Amino acid sequence: MLLYTLRRILEFVPTIFIALTLIFVITRLVPGSPITALIGNQSVDAAQIDAITKQLGLDRPILEQYLEWLPRVVTGDFGQSLFFSAPVAEVILDRFPITFALTFMALLVTVAVGIPLGILSAMRRGGILDYFGNVLSSLGMALPPFWLGFMLMLVFAVSLQWVPASGYRPMEFGFWSWLSRLVLPVLALSVSQIGLVVRMTRSTMIEVLGMEYVAMARTKGLRERTVILRHALRNAMVQIVTVIGLVFALGLGGSVIIENVFALPGLGELITTAAIRRDYPTLEGGIFYLTLVALVINLMVDLAYAWFNPRIRYA
Amino acid sequence: MLRRRTVLVGVVGGLAATSLHLEAGHLEAGRLVRTALAADEPVQGGTLNVGLHIPLPTLDWQSTVGHPLPHVMGHVYEGLFGLGSDLNAEPELAASAEASDGGRTWTFELRPGVLFHNGDTLTSADVKASLERWRTVGPKGSGLNTLTSIETPDDLTVVMSFSEPMGRYLLLLLGSDENKAVIMPAAIAEASTTPGQLTEVVGTGPYRFVEYKEDQYARLARFEDYVARDDAPNYQTGKKIANLDEIIFWIVPESTTRVAGLESGEYDVIAEVPDGEATRLAENPDLDAVKNGPGVLLYMMFNHKVGPTAELNIRKAIQSLIDPAEIAAVAVSNPDFALTNPSIYAPESAYNTDAGSDLYTPGDVEKAKEYLAAANYDGEPITIQVIATNSLQNRLAVAIAEQAKRAGLNLEIVSYDLATWVANRRDPAKLNIYTSGGYWVDPSLWHAEFNGTFPSPDVGFISDRTEEIFARLAAETDFDARKALGEELQRAFYEQVAMVNLGYVYRLVAKQGRVVDPYDNLALGNMTLHGIYLAD
Description:
heterodimer, A: about 325 residues
């Protein structure tokens, strides 16, 4: 298992290298200059523009910038944000907990609702629960999260006034103040994910429940609960874990929109504004962080495979 | 429980000026106010939560015309002069201002005992250092290009000397809340040499700056030692009353989210509300919809130096074919928020005039065709550049392109993100046309945009005739004479098609009914919260 883990970690290296190179190239291929975005409507003359360009190192050839940039960023040093007057790592660490809380809580809700509903749908095929699960998963996947976000806001914040409509309060403002502002974004993000998990769990469980060893277990007189949870679900988990990993990565991507809708100052919102402002270091750092998290999730999924099915680590 | 009323406040004429740069598409406007009746005694205390539409690009108000700086920093900083409720320049930190030597010398006496938020007392040295910085870093600082010296004969006297006569326009230049010439301690002004970067945010206003959490909120707290004027409250000047303990400006870019936050009680006041929400909000007994003026002119800007729009007949064709009634229909969803008016000065300005309106013949397609023929126009594509995320600009561009087709003008819409749009706007090889918006209540305020350097010297408009009018305007102090010059300027603008008037729109601000605005400040210009209190 240790060897398997080390091998998977080593495979990170080329992936990270490719990701970093793509991040660098794409941000510089986008038209528009950070200098223009930086000065905005401020009164800056040509000499000052030249000075800022030089100070940021943007006057040098792209390849030279890349060769200076790469060794620095692999150590996590993305430099200073052009807009925040602070190191990029500091800016990201300030925002990441919000995005992490949002996506992690959305994942918890997804798993807590999606897997049981998928199992029940598979066990009671054609029944009311199955019908409900199908409708929920179809709706969840069809409804755009931003639209759902606005609808949730209108119902639960404006009409019922159960929770605030938007914004973010750090934990220092109180636990409920913090949590209440995450309820609607978490719901908006998790509904589409639940749809995916319900569908995947249901189809996998149906497949597994039709296998001979499940029939054997039932023939042996095992309780249905034991058959489902210890025999069928464990085998189905390889596929379900894959979807959960995918869902978390999708959640990180989806947070960009949800954070904008709910005015949450998370990493997604940071990346969006950094792109608009051409804040290269923040943009690169933000995307890299998300990439890194996605890779770590992939690693955890791979390790979970090996745990659920030991044959995988020898493959 | 408070009773409410609907008040129609006619915008007072008689005024001077301010200009508002709204390039990313925020609109301005008029004064149909639905407001709560002021309670007898203002309530002290509480936190006012304000929903703003965009983050602060910088904390350095001296170095930018960008929004939402005036909304936030207008409560922190003060200038020698500020805007009164008639949008005229009124004394703020100055006790008096006197011109001598035919307008070549201006002497300002400062109010004694004014304190900065750091506890220091305001002196003439602070004013000198602040004005020196502003003329260097401020987009409007070029208005002081004839300034030869600033002297400080004593702690409360500032003398500005000019090489050319300077009229009362100087006071408006210093007091306009777009890139205001705000006063800060000399030590901060001298240490903050880079535009956009202040070592500290310290002003003399009724609220002090506490913190800005990037893209999240800006927090202000009442300055307990504020030294107020003793004259009557007058919009951004006069006696400023700070009833609130704290003001928090939340950054909420999505307008739907801002409105939902107001309806759920999270925000007390929100800015930049889509006008389509006016009726619905007004029907809510707990909320007030405030139509905000003065009218914002939507206008079309050209590349005057290179390409097809450098040709006068092409610009004349465009000026003729534009139909503002159609433009208004796409610009606003509530017709109460649009107005067609031939003047380049806001409908609420005393300078508003129909001079030159014989040249303003909206929707005259036949005339447009004649101009195109005179220009030997061969169907060459002309681009109108828009910011992809700016829905107003996009709607305007679509309407304009459709109108252009009727005259046979091939207008293409090209869409960019904000940074590229700003960069291309300065580039003579890339720019043909863009649209913008703002309000001008004094002719001189047009000079910053039409002096040949805006948005860059390679594309900007300048002409001998308009320069001569601007010079006379700068020196003239008599209102009637200035009004005549304003008419002359407007005629020159139409003759040379410096820009094209697309019509006026008004903004919408909304608030909770419990927010009492006794001086109707929310109906006017940028957000001014002096005197506002929470009724419960």
